[in-house]
Amino acid sequence: MKNVFILVFSFFSLIGFAQDQLIFKNGEDLQVKVVEITPDQIKYKRFNHLDGPTIVIHKEDVLLIQYENGTKDLFYQQQTLDQPTQPNKPIHHKYADTPKAPKQKSDIYLQDDMLFFSGIATTLEGSDAKLGFQLGLERAYYFHRNFALTAHVSGTYNALENGYYSGGMIQAFFLGGIQARTRTIGNQLYGQLLVGTAWTTYTGDFNELDNIWAPTIGLGAGVVINDFTDIGLRFTYDPDNEFSYLQIGVGIHF
C-alpha cells in the first residue's frame, strides 16, 4: 500500500509540472510556456493557447519561474541584492506566511499579433446597399508596450436593389496606421487610426459601372477577451465621394 501511495503521489507531481509557472511579485501566477529570457524581458505563450501571440513582460515584475522539469529561476533576490533593506523587516510575497503585497498591473504587451475577423457590413449613406457581410485580416507589430503599427485588409459584399434592377457591390479596403492598446493581463481595449485606399466594383445588373479607387480614412475600436477573442468595430470614410462604411465583426488572434 505504501508503494502505491508513492506512485500516485509521483504521478500527480509530474502533472503539476506539465507546464512552466510564471509567478509575479504582486502574487499573481500564470501557467505558461517560456519562449525566451533576455537581460530585461521574459517572452512566453499562454499554456492553453500555444499557437497564440508571444507575450513580453519586464523581468523586474517577476518573482520566479518554475519550469516543467521542476527547476526554478528566482529573480527577486537578484534584483534586490544592491538595495538595502531595514533589519528584521520581512519580505512579503505569495509564498510567505505574511499578507500579500497590494496587486499592481504588470507591464505586459504583445510583441506581434494577427487578427482574423468576420461579421456584418453596411453603408451609412448615398447607396441602396442592404446589410451585407465582411471578412478581414489585420497584423499589428508592437514597437512599444502601448502602440503598434497596423496593416488592415478587408472585403465586403452588399446586395443592391433599385426598382427592377438587382446586383451587388464589392469593396476591398487596404489601410495602414497606428493602434493603441491597454496594458493588462487578459481583457484589453484598443483603438486605431488608419489611412489608405478602397476599391469598389459592382455585380449583377450594375456591373457596367466602372471600378473605383478612392482614398479612405479608417477608425477602429474593440475589446480582446483572454488575449484570443476579438469584438471590434471598423468605420471607413471616403472624403472624395462622402461615402462611409461600417463593419462590425468578431475575430480570433493568433
Brief sketch in words of this structure:
With 254 residues, the protein is mainly β.
Q: Report low-confidence residues grouped into runs of 5 or more.
A: 4-17, 78-107
What's the shape?
Answer: elongated
The portion of residues assigned to helices is under 10%
Total helices: the number is 2
Given helix and strand content, the structural type is mainly beta
Report the order of strands and helices.
HEEEEEEHEEEEEEEEE
The whole-angstrom Rg is 25 Å
How far the N terminus sits from the C terminus, by CA atoms, comes to 48 Å
Mean pLDDT across residues: 78
Largest sheet at a glance? 8 strands, antiparallel, barrel
For the biggest β-sheet, the strand order reads 8-9-10-11-12-13-14-15
The count of strands amounts to: 15
Strand percent estimate: over 45%
Give an overview of the whole structure:
It is a single chain. With 254 residues, the protein is mostly beta strands. 8% of the residues lie in helices and 56% in strands. The chain has two helices and 15 strands. Strands 8-9-10-11-12-13-14-15 form an eight-stranded antiparallel beta barrel. A seven-stranded antiparallel β-sheet has the order 6-5-1-2-3-4-7. It is elongated and about 75 Å long. It starts with a helix and ends with a strand. About 17% of the residues have low confidence.
Break the fold down into its secondary structure elements and pairings.
Blueprint lengths: L1 H15 L3 E5 L4 E9 L3 E6 L8 E4 L3 E5 L5 E3 L1 H5 L27 E3 L1 E12 L8 E11 L4 E16 L2 E17 L6 E17 L7 E14 L3 E10 L4 E11 L1
Antiparallel strand pairs: 1-2, 1-5, 2-3, 3-4, 4-7, 5-6, 8-9, 8-15, 9-10, 10-11, 11-12, 12-13, 13-14, 14-15
